[in-house]
Amino acid sequence: MQGRLLHHSCWSKPNNVRSLPDALVTITELDGTGLLHGNVTIETLHDDVLLAIFASCEDPNDEIDAWHTLVHVCQRWRCLVFASPGHLNLQLQCTIETPVKEMLDIWPPLPIVITDVSDSMSGVDNIIAALEQHDRVREIRLDDSQDWKIDTFLPAMLEPFPVLESIILGASDHDSEMAVIPDSFLDGSAPQLQWLTLCAIPFPTLPSFLSSTKNLVELELSSIPRSGYISPEVMVTCLSAMPRLRSFRLDFHSSRSFPNDESRPRPLLARSTLPALCDMFFTGVCEYFEEFIARIDVPVIRRLEITFFHRYFYHFSELSRFIDHAAIFKSPTDACIRLLSGVADVTLSPLSETYRDVTLTLGISCNELDQQLRYITQLCSSTLLPFRKAKMLEIFCVYEMHKPHWEHPTEDLRWLDILQPFSTVERLYIAKSILTPVTYTLNMVAKRRITEVLPAIQELSIGEQFPLGSVLRAIEKSAPTRRLFTRLDGPNRWVAS
Known about the structure:
The protein is α/β, with parallel strands linked by helices. The protein is 26% helix and 24% strand. Among the domains are: 1-88, no CATH class; 400-497, no CATH class.
């Protein structure tokens, strides 16, 4: 059958699917000759047409076992569905509540998906029974599990899993004595694996295991403890053997996850190209990332998010080189500074529609506002990011910054250092929580006639509420020198005259 089914008026997942054999369905088929219309009963439909209807009604948000309804309609449908398990993506869902042994006796030998994201002590036998079907297991998700549960499941995961495509293993307590994945995990090989996520679980022989996962598309190693440390050079060696890898996340649990000699200089190895890597996420110390990125080329990178643990000073030489050579970060951008609980970061997003999904984010993991401001100041004062191409700047802050916290000479200079690199910014958005210090700084810029701070500003937005008192007066005083005039179409927006 050429073309595809474009319309089936009666087939819309009705509550009572058993009535469908007696229903009428209108099918519109587009082939080489044009549109064909006709009314037929479901009993007269060809098997291929029925399969196309079943497949077109597949909803990715449905339960994995939603196909059970189809096989209970009639004997013909049952035979048709079971004759095309791959076409209809038939799978068996196994959880702690699934009577697995009974289920295996009832249904054909379909691929198995195992899911347990609970901390319940019951139902463990059901998960183990499903894991023992190692030649049929396609997906394993044991996320946010207690350590004792991981230890209970691991002995059932030492056999080869020849059709396994996705696995997620995650511990719920990142600070406890953690379960350790043995070197015989999955018999040491997973040739069909495409998605691998490990969270807070040490895997000492992971590099050896990764050497067998050449089909990986997504690799996520989160909350890596000290006992799970992998050096930058070994990590690059592992990734270079994965030509299909599109997404990579490397998150260390804390700065204590690194050996004491992490900052010791090491000889650089030959650079490795990761040809398909689009998304990269990193959380750790600056020294590790500098050494890691010095060893790789990522020609199609589109999303880079980096969060460093707190340091009093950061070295950005390799990262600066990398960003400078990335063509996608050279176009005009939007910039966003965020001061949040536990993290402060700067994000650049190109304005071009061609690069709609491109983002570059650099952040620091830190709770103290003063340290967050110090980091943002250092970042904005460096030549690391292409700030001079930013057309819009947004500044958000979850902290209420009032006069006692910021009216200090060093604080004035800090905000000046933050704003000064944005020489091409035309639109500035200031969150309500930091109106006071930022507008005070703008007023000081006006008084001192500092022309290099926001020289291209055309529009100023100040949150969602009209500022009162000294804040409003500061804006009004700075408006003439910034070529701004009183509100255009709202009480919180100033635009160039």
